[in-house]
Amino acid sequence: MRDLAILACTECKNRNYTTTRNKKTTTERLEKVKFCKFCGKRTTHKETK
């Protein structure tokens, strides 16, 4: 079962991206380096509730 995951920038806390993940195989929260249009640079984005 794939679940929707919302990614938020760790610097400005804006929710910029959505992606899906498999809840059974990926039990921890996602963490990806993505471009934040509000900061204007590549930052780490973590999964939020």
Account of the 3D structure:
The protein is an all-beta fold and 49 residues long. The chain has a single domain (2-48), classed as Rubrerythrin, domain 2 (Single Sheet). Helices cover 0% and strands 61% of the residues. Strands 2-1-4-3 form a 4-stranded antiparallel sheet, with no helix packed on it. The protein is elongated, with a radius of gyration of 11 Å. The two termini are 17 Å apart.
What is the structure about, briefly put?
With 49 residues, the chain is mostly beta strands. The protein has no helices and four strands. A four-stranded antiparallel β-sheet has the order 2-1-4-3, with no helix packed on it.
**End-to-end CA span:** 17 Å
Instruction: Look at the structure and give the mean pLDDT.
Output: 94
What can be said about the biggest beta sheet? 4 strands, antiparallel
Rg: 11 Å
Number of strands: 4
The top level CATH class name: Mainly Beta
Major sheet: arrangement of strands: 2-1-4-3
* CATH topology tier name: Rubrerythrin, domain 2
| Helix-strand string | EEEE
Full CATH superfamily name = Ribosomal protein L33
Principal-axis shape: elongated
Total helix count?
0
Architecture (CATH level 2) name: Single Sheet
Quickly give the structural class: mainly beta
Strand content: over 45%
Low-pLDDT runs of 5+ residues are: none
Q: How many separate domains make up the residues?
A: 1
Task: Give the fraction of residues assigned to helices.
Answer: under 10%
